[in-house]
Amino acid sequence: MSTNDVDVCIIGAGVVGLATAVEIARAGGSVAVIDRHRRAGAESSTHNSGVIHAGLYYPPGSLKARLCVEGAERLYAFCAAHDVPHDRCGKLVVAINDREIAELEGLLANGRANGVAGLEIVDREFIRQREPHVRGSAALWSPNTGRVDADALVAMLLREARRLDAIFLDDATLASGETTAGGFALDLLRQGGTAAETITCRVVVNAGGLEADSIARRLDGEPFTIYPCRGEYAELRPARRSWVNGLVYPIPHSSGHGLGVHLTKTTGGAVLLGPTIRYQNRKDDYESDREPLESFLEPTRTLLPAVRVDDLRPGGSGIRAKLHPPTERFADFMIRADRRHPALIHAAGIDSPGLTSCLAIGARIAALVQERLP
Predict the structure, then answer these.
(1) Cis peptide before 275 (omega within 30 of 0)
(2) Average pLDDT, the chain
(3) Listed residue (158, 205, 209, 219) closest to 373, CA to CA
């Protein structure tokens, strides 16, 4: 076993872990990022719609609201500077009848309270000009919403972290850890169960996504629970992709558990329909008991009346790392020091808008780290 001494060890190489590594390394700190997969961003970071959210939905003053608005601008600038495929295509949140217009007005007020610029309620003709195949009485137009190639973003963040001399240890799992006089000593295992190495560090950042709660337990941190919540997608078959030009959303679910089945044309040209939302027990189950294609038909036809089941094909799925159970409507990001061990910083419960917010989250965590480095 070898011993590596670094300032900061980041557990989890999703967009949040990598963005944090870039920020800390840029400030001169030595960083090791460990991940149990053989490639970075293998879970939630790349199993999503790839939407750059503007900040419409989150309670004013929440971390999700503030970091979404800040993160979107950081993300657009980063993608432009590093040639990551993206665009600021705008989004329509569609009211299908006059009764839903009041809900658009509520979203408009909430978005403005969060500092989202350019929002306006538009009429049926505006919808028709942008999305001729979409049905709606009115819509909330969000010009600052966009989309990004999430795989390309992960690859660029990893490249930047390595350029700044951050170490990336793949196929490595945290077996255990203990506090030391200077911080933590972490014992790592390879996936086959063989001992990999021990890393000593001043600060640990828990950016473990779906495993953030178990990582906290292994480090004797405060207890919390991650609730895995699966979202599934269908897609329009290639011949029907011209029916959608950008991003089209329904009024959000009244349950508060999701934004409804929406239409997302990706940077690569595919049109995703979804995601659904289902709490489950397993954190690694992406495929069992998948929703039949027929279950996507009516939610899609609400916005896209011409669609038939033959126009659909199966899409991917992702699992959100939520901090609240299905009986509750909202939990904010957990971005703070552990209450037991101040040298352990959590970035937990990073569900939507985590992709949008990743650079702002990374900057926030890096500031917390700097407060703790000697």
Answers:
(1) yes
(2) 95
(3) 205
Determine the residue type at 113: A
Q: Are strands 31-34 and 138-142 parallel, antiparallel or unpaired?
A: unpaired
User: pLDDT digits over 1-45, tens only?
Assistant: 345 799 999 999 999 999 999 999 999 999 999 999 999 999 999
Q: Is the dihedral of CA 239, 243, 244, 250 positive or negative?
A: negative
Q: Where in the chain is the domain with CATH 3.50.50.60?
A: 3-46+152-224+331-372
Domain 87-144+227-322 falls in which CATH fold?
Answer: D-Amino Acid Oxidase; Chain A, domain 2 (3.30.9)
Average pLDDT over residues 135-146: 97
pLDDT at position 257, please? 60
Average pLDDT (157-186) is: 95
Per-position b or e across 257-288, b if 16+ CB within 10 A of its CB: bbbbbbbbbbbeebbbbbbbbbeeeebeebee
How confident is the model at residue 192, as a pLDDT?
66
Check residue 260 and give its pLDDT: 82
Token digits for 314?
């199966």
- For 232-271, give the secondary structure using H, E and C: EEEEECHHHHHHCCCEEEECCCCCCCCCCCEEEECCCCCE
CATH: 2.60.40.10, 1.10.760.10, 3.90.1570.10, 3.50.50.60. Which one for 3-46+152-224+331-372? 3.50.50.60
pLDDT of residue 3: 54
244, 304 in Cβ contact below 8 A?
Answer: yes
Q: Which pLDDT score is estimated for 1? A: 38
Residue 264 pairs with which residues in a beta bridge? 247, 272
